[in-house]
Amino acid sequence: MVHRFFQIPTSLIFPERRFCAAIHQHHSFLIIHSIPNSSFLIANDPAFLVLLLTVIVPIINTSFIHLCYNAPIIQSIPQPTITLAEELLWNWIKNRFSIRQHITLVLTLLTVLIVLLIGVCVAVVREQSRTRLTSAADSYLSLLTRTLENQLVIQESYITSQVLNSEELHRLGFGEGHTQAYLDSYKLHTGFSSAMAAGNDVTALYLYSEPNSILMSEYATAQAGRPTETQIQKTNLEETLRSMVDAKTLNDERWTPYVVSGQQYWVRAVHYYGAWLISVVNLDRQCSQATDGMLAFAQPDGVLLAGTRPEEGKLSHYISLTAETEGLVLEYYVPSTDMDLDNAMNLALAVGITAVLAAICFVIWYLRSNVVHPLDALVDAMRRISAGDLSVRADWNPVNLELQQVKEAFNVMLNEIETLKI
After folding, report:
1. Does residue 275 contact residue 169 with C-beta atoms inside 8 Å?
2. CB–CB of 120/348 below 8 Å?
């Protein structure tokens, strides 16, 4: 639809100038066709239109401008707003730009471009940093998952093979004499240390003979690379496992989560009649030892077992990675930016913008002092001459060669005019 028709004053018409261009970008289009008596400007991108009206129109002199708005964004703007914007734009472009306006426009565009360039550079560096962090976090989580999976498999294989092949465990399951039960328990317990050494993520390994009420345990030690459970926690674990076996509530089919004294454990139990072998992993301790991020364990349905997750409103500030092993979902959250790098980037951005603004201010001051003011003085002198005062002379002291030549030529011209008039 044709929205508004403008006519440019004839003082801007230069019949000898011809210009024809067509620019297409996405759904926006511009057509400028300038001939001595007619010209058309068609656009549906408001930002692009402003650039054209402020830069191209003062350069190409046209007799008529035809504006057509077809974009949905333009059609959604209230009519009074569009009318006001058109009037402001027209009042701006219908007069010639002064040097000040051109300088201001050019420096403003230059400032915007430089700031955008700095911003793009910072964004690229941050994205590269995020990519590196994601890669490092993925490697850490993959290593942690493989290590934990291997050790869980080792533990399950060990206790399963003992149930299937150990004569000592079979005798403990039937309760053949108290003395023999102790001997068998001791012999089985001697193999626990090697099984624990093969799996440093495992917290404890238990042997419990229900008929003889014998319980033996082996805990991870600091020498094995893991901190030990406190004595109170060990006692609570043993009492809880004993009571669960006696109550027939201990799951003997798969790894199962249990909470003991506020600590979350991942437990695998197998048995041969009344003899039980139980492997235990403290998930809370695993989470507390995660580096450079937050580690959490959850069930496949999303129920959190151990660790912490970021707050709901801050989840976007973290890189979130997940992995699954043995029915256990590992969630790893790493801050999406390196704080030191982020602070350095913010400082670089602030320094860069400050430097650009300082340079722009210096350029504006220099141009106003050495270009605009001398030209203003020249215009003032010409106005006085037009009023009949031929005694006027250009008396400023320009610092650049071009204005010095203008000054000398102007004064020579006045001297010759004054001589001819006399």
Report:
1. yes
2. no
